[in-house]
Sequence to fold (603 residues):
Amino acid sequence: MDFFNLQPAEWQALVLTLKVAAAALLVALPLAVLVAFLLARTRFAGHGIVNALVHLPLVLPPVVTGYVLLLAFGRKGFAGAFLENTLGISFAFNWTGAALAAGVMAFPLMVRPIRISFEAVDPKLEEAARSLGAHRLIAFVTVTLPLALPGILGGAILGFAKAMGEFGATITFVSNIPGETRTLALALYTATQTPSGDLAAFRLTLIAVVVAFAALIASEVLARRLRARVGGGHA
Amino acid sequence: MLEVDITGRIGQLDLEACFRSSGGVTSLFGQSGAGKTTLTNMIAGLIRPRSGRISVNGTTLFDADRGIDLPVRARHVGHVFQDARLFPHLSVKANLTYARWAGRRRGTRDMGEVTDLLGLGGLLDRMPRTLSGGEKQRVAIGRALLSDPRLLIMDEPLANLDQGRRNDILPYLDRLCGEAGIPILYVSHSIEEVARLSNTLVILSEGRTPAFGPVADMLARTDLGRATGRHEAGALLEGTVAGFDPEWGLTDVDIGGAVLQIPDWVAGVGEAVRLRIRARDVALAVKPPEGLSIRNAFAATISSISSETGPYAEILCSVSGQTLRARITRASVFDLGLHTGKTVTVLIKSVAIDRRQRVPAPVFSPAG
Fold:
């Protein structure tokens, strides 16, 4: 049963992929919740521009997004140089760069369902919370956020899946370095480019399918539980 | 003590409201679109008035001249919304205690006392979606009461309920209005609810407050027909239960100087009741008639006759200090030779005083 024995390089790719996707999710999700809330509940100057910016990675070719990231966050990029000098964080050709690329690409996919679920929560409930003495922020955390949770969960799952499968922007931004930036998708691509890589490619495909399937089932179960608590219907 | 004197503009509506109330239950009465919800939202702090002042029991909530505009959470105004607005993800108990755990209000009111008052004991572990409309409103009222409010606003709490549910919740409102111990602003477009529950009546019409005052005086005014609704016009009589005749199923109510007989058992002997008697159910006779099925016939003095155009005349009669309102035809006024100061016999059919118009008068003593 050699077939089911994962090679060390494949294990590495799987673990790296989970690490990259988790990091991307951890940083991008709170930001996505904030942006989704602002887009859903407030009207400010530049509302349309922010909306377009958020969705840009969805419509741009991923290679373009990766190249823009390289220009901005590469060693010589203005943001990259600044971050390296002040905070000592580098995104150039390492796994954090892969996480950044994955997070940027996943961002619009997270914002959309979260925004829709915020829009479905009646803002008058927050008025009621405030009339009961709650500060705006407390009202948001105790009323709107829990009611939008199914949508946030949906956004998180979608974002995680996208982050795991990100290819174009990642390979353009941080290249294809084994153990550092070679995630499942990149490893699969590499295997297909290798004459004897058919079996490896097939195993990687299977891993990707199993992980994606598990994530979808987990999200479905969680969402059902949340909905049962909130009471069906919207959000 | 509630004092409001504000102006503001919301959409097409120019609001210019000014009224004072000495406490107890103040009803804000007006037709749909008169600006009732806008006005209550301004008092609650959800909408900012353009100018003016709002104060409750000596605490200023808003004063444009002095730059005071307390945020919603600092106003301590309990708000019962028309649509209840219970938090759907929280149990009834968590909804009731929301002000304590999320609003850091330390209520003086005991949780058990409120659940008893509103009959919520069996609902505490339920989720809002499993409640009926009337139960939702009772929870919403309890939630507001437990937020330690200085004023309780009830914005048409019965408007979204069918008649059956209304009858379920009205007894709770009666008790609440009697026992709450805080001023209540009750918003309604139903003259029956207003007459039943309130001490002071504020009339709101097209964004203005043309009149306010004690509810009996306001209902007796014939110049407010347009705002109070002509068809339902009537007067309030306060009285005490003098006795009950189980054989015929009639209750005697002493209104001071006269005893009215009304159907069914109303309240215990000696208890205060309030009767709303519609003007169109009252007839007048120049001398005591005989051989009549009408059981309520007593002497009263005509205090005013408003002659309008059209076939009707509105007559106010005084019975030992209380005012009764009668609508008869102008032709009858002429035929009977009625004039101010004349003593007449008032006739009211017992059956015209229906169940929903007889309730205990709110227990309330004006404080200053």
Remarks:
- Chain A has a mean pLDDT of 89.
